[in-house]
From TrEMBL:
Residues 1-158 form the Transketolase-like pyrimidine-binding domain. This is Transketolase-like pyrimidine-binding domain-containing protein. Residues 337-347 have a biased composition (Low complexity). Belongs to the alpha-ketoglutarate dehydrogenase family. One of its GO terms (biological process) is generation of precursor metabolites and energy. Gene3D superfamilies: 3.40.50.12470, Multifunctional 2-oxoglutarate metabolism enzyme, C-terminal domain. Residues 324-381 are annotated as: Disordered. It comes from Coemansia biformis.
Amino acid sequence: MDANANGHRTRRPQGKLEVVNSNLCEEAVVGFEYGVSIEDPFTLPIWEAQFGDFFNNSQTIIDGYVASGETKWGQQNSLVLLLPHGFDGGGPDHSSSRIERHLQLSNDPVGGYACAAPNIYVAYPSTPAQFFHLLRRQMKRNFRKPLVVAGPKTLLRLASATSSLCEMGPGTRFEPVLDDPSINDLLSVKRVMMVTGKVYYELEKMRSEHPLGAHVAIVRVEELSPFPQRELFDVVSQYVNATDFVWVQEEPRNAGAYAFAAPRIQRLLPGHAELRYVGRSEHAAVCSGVEIQQVAEQAQLIREAFDGLRGLVADLVIDTISRQQQQPIKPAPPPQQKQQLDAQQQQRSLEKQGAAVVHPASVSHRWSSRPIYASAQSSER
């Protein structure tokens, strides 16, 4: 409500929010939402699946229209696919939105930076503020692109996955890469983990309990297409002593973002470094259908991400000692020269004490700031 010149309150124009519980026919509903996004570019249509893998039944619409319509017909669309994703205990049929399939549809180049925006945006935000900025960016830009958002249901009730209002206030925006906020000494980091999504919080919990966790940096890649090569390089390159670079994911190796991200990350690393993979091995299904086995696999990959830290930290200590030993050591002076140096040092100490008691006017004077005194001093010189 605003007050006008006469003191009367007027109602601000409000946006419209329409929530529709559609019938269970993904192909028809996604096709309808795609049409809405083309018909009215100032409307933000969002199709939220109950589980991420429900998009399978609308794959034809996504392949033939959403991802390639602009290339074929020059028609931009702003459709948002909000797909729950993550190993939340839903089993092999309800744990993945198949991020790898959406990334395969992206024309984001591996070698170098794209001249234009990619045909499809894919993001895996880890905080509410990041999710807010993603949706806001969809409408604030002067062009339209489809957006696929992987959103774990676990983060909805995870206490550590929160954001303050100031993170959504003026001057804030979506960050494709989030640096590790807990690192105080950049030189102490020996291992850099690159992750995306909710596995960050499990790794963070393990690091807080690990005695050598201070030597590990966990970097979050929030946007996968377009891949933020420049932003990721700026973050990773500041850890100059890091020698171990790891991609950690909870999906199997033949799923998730690893196949898409690995060649792009490798281009950013130092020449002697290779990106390691930590996660589940190749699997026909997304995950095991036995809950006990799924929990055991998750715990194993979290532990594996911190294996070998003792050796890395030992290398850091050895390197530090070696650099210190390489510094030239000044030889001790002869006894007679040492006595002369001691006498000179004692004389300077006495002169310093005397100077502290009596100050010449030309050095320190309570009138020195006055213009007449300043002009007199300058004329003497």
